[in-house]
């Protein structure tokens, strides 16, 4: 089971424990100043990692959606879940 906690400076999405193949989704709008930041902390067995899942100034454009996928060797990102997932972080 994967445990996660995601939040921004304004919104705490709480702690969640997810089964395999579970999608955790939320929607938000970038703030007026263009400095929105969401981060997540993930725990999977003895592994854990914290990282920014959305930052207005990120070097890649999420467009309308950002897709993150957790795998046994790390955390992957794509702007389209049916396309290539790029490994962004190792555990």
Automatic annotation (TrEMBL):
Q: Which UniProt keywords apply?
A: Secreted, Self-incompatibility, Signal
**Where is this protein found?**
Secreted
- Keyword Signal in the entry? The reply is yes
Region forming the signal peptide = none
Family the entry assigns: Belongs to the plant self-incompatibility (S1) protein family.
Tell me the InterPro entries matching this sequence.
Self-incomp_S1
> Sorted alphabetically, which Pfam families does this protein's record hold?
Self-incomp_S1
Stated name of the protein: S-protein homolog
Q: Which domain of life is it from?
A: Eukaryota
Q: Provide the primary localization.
A: secreted
| Transmembrane parts of this sequence | none
Q: Which organism is it from?
A: Penstemon davidsonii
